[in-house]
Design goal:
It is a single chain. The chain is α/β, with parallel strands linked by helices. It contains 2 helices and 8 strands; from the N terminus they run βαββββαβββ. The strands form 2 sheets. Strands 1-4-3-2 form a 4-stranded mixed beta sheet, with helices on one face.
């Protein structure tokens, strides 16, 4: 069965996006040759790596629907990472909520207006009220 093997982040200001994802998740970025493209290493083990490319066209509308895939990132502590997102210039898109038997999920926007999810594994996450 085909599985995702690479993701791309589109950014109006690539250097700002690099700074955001480096500060929040510790990802490593490396410029790929002379073209405006950066390879992203998200770490060792399970997961996928990606790339960052200059955005072609306008940024996502603040209240518009998602037009693409939302990547969800495994984090050890959603509350701590939400603080890191805010400190790095990102914003909250959907507050932390339980996913019963799975964990705690929150959605944020990066400095480029892209939505991403964060999931803290917790088998004891309750059914929402």
């Amino acid at each position: 069965m085909p599985r995702p093997i690479h993701f791309e982040i589109h950014a109006a200001d690539p250097e700002r996006a690099v700074a955001f994802y480096t500060a929040v998740f510790g990802w490593k970025f490396e410029r790929w040759g002379e073209v405006p493209y950066w390879m992203i290493s998200t770490g060792d083990g399970e997961g996928i790596d990606g790339g960052l490319v200059p955005r072609q066209g306008p940024p996502p509308a603040d209240s518009g629907p998602v037009h693409g895939f939302v990547n969800t990132i495994d984090v050890a502590d959603v509350d701590h990472t939400l603080g890191e997102v805010a400190r790095a210039g990102g914003t909250l898109a959907l507050p932390k909520q339980p996913v019963p038997g799975v964990g705690w999920l929150a959605y944020c926007k990066d400095t480029e207006g892209n939505i991403f999810g964060m999931l803290q594994a917790d088998e004891n996450a309750p059914v929402p009220d």
